[in-house]
Amino acid sequence: MISTFLIIIIGLSVFALFVTAALSPIETLSWWAGWTEREISGEDIEDDGGDPAAKIAAHKSDDHLYVVYLSGIASISGRFLLPRELAFIKGLKSRLPDATIIADVFPYSPAGLPLLAAPRAFDRLWRRVQKIKLTGKSTILAVLINMRNVFQVMVSADHRYGPIFNQGAADVIEQALLRHGYKRGSNAPVAIIGYSGGAQIAIGATPFLTARLGAPIDVVSIGGVMASDPGLHFLRRLHCFIGEKDNVRKIGGAMFPERWSIMAHSEWNAAKHDGRIVEHSIPEMKHAGAKGYFGLIKIGEKRNNERTQELVESVLSAG
């Protein structure tokens, strides 16, 4: 009985996974066709007194740094980060008190719609999966969230659908910047921190953000899974933090042949040759978990979360 039930659950999970994969490009195309509305938060609506963030921005200089954090593939919404990520953002804010740090962006939808937003196919499934995930249990269903977002990363890296998806991602990021007081034309620098698959979306969105904001944009990749994306031409600099024991990042690098050294004229290798890609190796660091980039267990004198904060602070402070 139990084995039969387990087989049914696995079968349904695999079916949902394949359907989700098939729908990934369709979600992008539906956004492009105008069939999907952008997520509107309460902060998007100004009251009679105006937007408080805009008032704060009036006192900021043109060189004020804005930092946007894009979560990894375990994300379900920009409003719900994992505890390790929340600790990282909190620590980074304390280290960069003069910067505006934004962490409410969901990058795995061209409309910025979180998985729990309705209407969306499999809405009940995502809610059930999230409840399981919050209990800390690692199940086949919980893996669905990761796989669904992996497909979105692949769409971002795709030469056919990528420009459409990345334009939507750029719109979501731009709206977040404007909500937090950014002024178009101010030339205020923007840094996008992308963890895991978030790094690919950060790079893919860069050309559109550069055109809209007219400001220098840096990307900080934390264990990033990235393609040789045309967006690399528009970056001022890409800082790659690479854990020596991060096998996920290694797999990501092998997935995209244009990143291989033999592809000398690819966007990736051209950016490396120009010095716009700077790699920072981190000893003993894994991709996720207690020994991952955001690990909260003290290893030696410091937690990995603190080590990652220090490294990110160092490159952002250098400008």
Describe this structure in words.
By secondary structure, this protein is α/β, with parallel strands linked by helices. It has a single domain (63-318), classed as Rossmann fold. It has ten helices and eight strands. The chain has helices spanning 2-32, 52-57, 83-95, 123-134, 140-157, 162-179, 198-213, 247-255, 267-273, 304-318; strands at residues 66-70, 100-105, 190-195, 217-222, 237-243, 277-282, 298-299, 302-303. The chain is globular and about 60 Å long.
Give me the CATH superfamily. Alpha/Beta hydrolase fold, catalytic domain
Return the domain count. 1
What percent of residues are in strands?
A: 5-15%
First-last Cα distance: 61 Å
User: What's the CATH class label?
Assistant: Alpha Beta
Task: Jot down its keywords.
Rossmann fold, six-stranded parallel β-sheet, 319 residues, two-stranded antiparallel sheet, 10 helices, alpha/beta
Question: How would the blueprint of this fold be written?
Answer:
Elements: H1 2-32, H2 52-57, E1 66-70, H3 83-95, E2 100-105, H4 123-134, H5 140-157, H6 162-179, E3 190-195, H7 198-213, E4 217-222, E5 237-243, H8 247-255, H9 267-273, E6 277-282, E7 298-299, E8 302-303, H10 304-318
Parallel strand pairs: 1-2, 1-3, 3-4, 4-5, 5-6
Antiparallel strand pairs: 7-8
Helix pairs in contact: 1-5, 3-10, 4-5, 5-6, 6-7
